[in-house]
Every structure is written in structure tokens, then in C-alpha cells.
Amino acid sequence: MDITLVDKTLGGYSPDTLVIACYQDSDVPEGLPEVPEAAAMLETLKTEPSFQGKEGEIRSLTLYRDGRLTGFIFLGLGTKDSLDFQGLRRCVNAAVKEARRMKAGTLALGPLGYNAGLREGDIIRILTEITLLSCYSFQTYKTRKMENSLKRVCLVCSQPDSPVIRSGFREGMVLGRAVILARDLVNEPANVLDPPEFARRVAEEGDRQGFEVEVYDEKKILRLGMTAFLEVARASDIPPRLIVLRYNGRGGETRGVTALVGKGVTYDTGGLSIKTNDQMDTMKRDMGGAASVLGAVSAAAQLALPIRLVGVIAACENMVSGRSYRPGDIIGSMAGKTIHIGNTDGEGRLLLVDAIHYAIEHEHAERIIDLATLTGDATRMMGHTADVVISNDDGFYAQLQMASEYSGERVFRLPVYEEHRELIRSDIADLTNAPVKAKTIAAGAFIGEFVQNRPWLHIDIAPTAWVNEDTDYRTKGGTGTEVRNIYYLLKRLSGRDMKVSSDNPSADFQEDTGV
Of 22, 215, 423, 506, whose CB count within 10 A is highest? Predict the structure, then answer.
């Protein structure tokens, strides 16, 4: 599918389907001024109770026009005062999916939201990004693939050659594809995407996008002293891999190294604390944090952010064998702290603490963001609506929250009190990996013991990394969650202008919070 920028003449293309948008509080059509009959059709349509222009409301019809059949998709945008970035994303998704249902071949989509105060560059970015994500499906292993009839989407804008619009288009394309990269990895079955194969694909992406990738095998991991990581990995016949991604953007030398650390468990049985059968079917998704790290680094490299960035992915399987680590064991860690194993299904935090220590000691990370499908309790708290965050730095979290307003990927911060830290103390070791209370907070507190007072964000992506049905532009399966959020946070850290172009002046990325 091609996505093309065109002006109101449609650049010589003849779309077979047109999107006519309107606000709930206006009868004037939005987006495609070259369709003179649109206003009359919209006026008639809005006399019907089934279409009032509410956000995401859809009515479609086909008419004989200019010697051929033309499809019209009437799309509600809600009210001008209420339309924001996330609402625009939902509306674009509704229009694109309706076009696919209609078997459209070429779709013309106008600059929706311009009259609601959104900047055209931002609108084009969102239209591009969501068009890609709405058309996503994972069909690698289908012998008969479902074809996408939509071959071209024409994005109508005032000046296709404007630097601002071209920049928005480029950013939307890169971010959409970076999310799709992460989705594809999460959707791969574990018998295909094991740790060595994961490492190979990361290296391929590094070659394509211009960032360095170094892969450590189990012997090198042992020499590094990553004993907690190796305890988890040792039950599997497939060896682990530590995958290190390095991107040094020109101009970012004075900003310090930001580390993205990803949990990369390519299959999780739970170990000897084994999961139930119905839980295991989707446990290939337990490397979702690592996939999002790759997507974010790839996007940062393609868009040349002036930042120094290291990604650290601890990739292994958590399996069951005679070599399995056991509940009751006491193991070491790269940082030297001892850990009592209360539950072998609490393996993710063991990988992460060794990977974080590596990032600090060997890559000189000055700030840390870890991403992991870590706790089922996070999903029980949030459903599939927001990711849970633990942080030791108010300013750093404030920047993530502002990125969230820009990306639409929600985050919610949980507190860590001293009573929570007491939950991870052990009578027979320094720490325990499986407290019985406040599990999501305690898991974050456990990881926090290893960050050496660096500004740190722990993002538990279990709530949103996988969905069991299509929800808006998140397709059933892996979602590629947090790729866009982390990219926007990195963009803010790099010093790039991130001013939100809406009537919300509080969401202004130009303010320096000091991290």
C-alpha cells in the first residue's frame, strides 16, 4: 500500500473512495473542497438520526459520479472543542477500516481536524501513522492470505512540499513502520523467534537503519557475571543472547547516555512454577518489551534524533528441565546482590536487573527506561487501557506523561512506599523475587534496587502489549505498545521541539524539567 501526499487537485489521481468528514456542531464538510456535492449530501444525511457527526460515526454510500461508481465515507469528528489527537486517531482508523470493508482501491483522506485547532503537520503525521496501523495484519503463516484491497491512500493537504508537512509525513511513516516491526516480532511463534533468531533480526535492523548491534553469547554473558539472567536461561536447550544496540546521534554527545532495557523472554512456561495451559498459548508475547526497545531505537535512528542511546535486550526462554532453577533457591546477580527465588514465574525482573547493571557499568547509562510484560496484576488493575509506571524521578516521569499526551499511549504511575520495599526483603538473602502482596509495585521496587539512583522509569506493559480482539487501531495480537511513547520521550530528551499543537497549553514539550 502506498501513502501519497497530494493537494486538493488530488495530484492527478482518481480515487474511487472519498472521505467526507464533519463536526457534530457544524454542517460544513471538512477535508475535500473539490467535491461540490458533498455539502448537499451531508446536509441531507444529518437530517437522519443515525448520523449526527459524533466522533467515529460512519455512514457510507456509493454513487455514479463522473462516469463511474464512487464511494463516499461520511465520518463524524465529534465537536470542534473536543477533538484531540487521540480522537483523530480513532476517526482515521474508522474511516480506513470502512474503506477496506468497501473494497476501496484508492482512498482520498483530507486534513481532518484542521478546523479544530490542530496543526496540519501533526494531522498528516497522525493520518499516515494510523493508516499504516489500521491496515496491519499478521499473515506470515497463512497459506491463503487475505488481500488488502486498499492500494493507495491520498492524503490531501494544502502544500505537499511544505517542510513542516513533509516532516510530519516522514515521522508518521517511520513510527507506523516501527510499531509494525515490534508487532511482527511479538506475533512470531516461539519455535521461530528464539533468542539467537531474535538477535539476528535485531542485527539486520541495525544494518538497515544505521545503528550498531553487538550480540553476546552465553559464554560472554557468563564472563560478564550476569548470573541472575543465566539462572533463568539454563533450563532451555536454546542458548540466551544479550543484545546491545548503540545509537549515537550527531549533536547528542553532551546529553548523556539513555538506556532502554527490554525483557526478551521469547517463551515463558513459568518454569517450575508452571503456568496453566490456557495461559501458555500466548507466552511468545513475553518479549514485547524487547520488541518495543528495538522499535524505539530504530525510529530514533531513522529520524536522526541528536541523542546517545543504548538498548539492552536480555533474550532467553524460561523453560522446565532438570537444570531449572527452583523455588527456594538463592542466586546471585551481576550487581552482587543475592536473591531468594520465591517463584520461577517472576523471571522477568531477574533478567532486567542484570541488564540494567550492565547498562550502567559497561555502557555508562545516565538514565534508564525498562520495558517489560512483567505482572498479571498490572492488567487486572488497568485492563487494556494504560501501562503502569514506577519511577524514582518526578521530572523524568513528567516528561513521559507529556509524551503520552502526544502519542495517545496512556501511562499511570504507582507509588512506592517504604512498606513496599519491605515486601522484597528476604530473611535468607538480600532480596526475594516474589512477594505475595502489591505484586506490581513490589516488582518495580525490586528492579529499583539496581538502578544506582539514576533517573529511572519502569514501564510494565503487560496491560497493553497484547489484545485478544481488534480495538481501534490496535490489531488482535501484539500491539507494539510504547514504541511511539518512548520515541516522543527520546525526542524531548534530545532537545527537539515537541510543542503539542492543540488548545492545551500545558502539554508543551519546550519546558525543560531538568532530567
Answer: 22
- Among the options 200, 275, 496, 499, which is catalytic? 275
φ, ψ for residue 169, nearest 5 deg: -60, -45
Per-residue model confidence (pLDDT) at position 330: 98
Task: Copy the grid coordinates of residue 256.
Answer: 548523556
Distances in whole angstroms, Cα of residue 136 to Cα of each of 38, 74, 464: 30, 23, 17
According to the model, what pLDDT value does residue 387 have?
Answer: 98
Q: Distances from the Cα of 299 to the Cαs of 207, 296, 406, 460, in angstroms?
A: 14, 5, 16, 21
Q: Which residue has the cell 538514565?
A: 367
Q: What is the pLDDT of residues 58-69, one digit of tens each?
A: 999 998 877 788
Which cell goes with 5? Answer: 501526499
Strands 152-156, 106-109: pairing kind = parallel
> Is residue 258 helix, strand or coil?
strand
Q: How far apart are CA 479 and CA 14, in angstroms?
A: 33
- The Cβ of residue 116 has, within 10 Å, a number of other Cβ atoms equal to 21
Residues 115-142, mean pLDDT to the nearest whole number: 93
Considering only CA atoms, which of 163, 147, 369 is closest in space to residue 258?
A: 369
- Please check the confidence at residue 35 and state whether its pLDDT lies above 80: no
Please answer whether residues 210 and 303 qualify as being in contact, where contact means their C-beta atoms are separated by less than 8 angstroms.
no
Residue-level pLDDT at 508: 35
Round to whole Å and give the CA distance between 455 and 494.
16
Other CB atoms within 10 A of residue 332 CB: 18
What integer pLDDT is reported at residue 68 of this predicted model? 86
For residue 65, the tally of other CB atoms under 10 A from its CB is: 13
Question: pLDDT digits over 205-229, tens only?
Answer: 999 999 999 999 999 999 999 999 9
DSSP state of 118: -
CB atoms within 10 A of CB 12: 6
The yes-or-no answer on residue 275 being catalytic is yes
Q: One of 201, 285, 349, 454 is an active-site residue; which one?
A: 349
Separation between Cα atoms, residue 296 and residue 298, nearest integer Å: 5
Distance of alpha carbon 325 from its chain centroid, rounded? 32
Please identify which residue in the block is written with the cell numbers 495530484. Answer: 11
At residue 117, the pLDDT reads: 82
Averaged over 298-320, what is the pLDDT?
Answer: 98
Q: Are 292 and 209 in contact (CB under 8 A)?
A: no
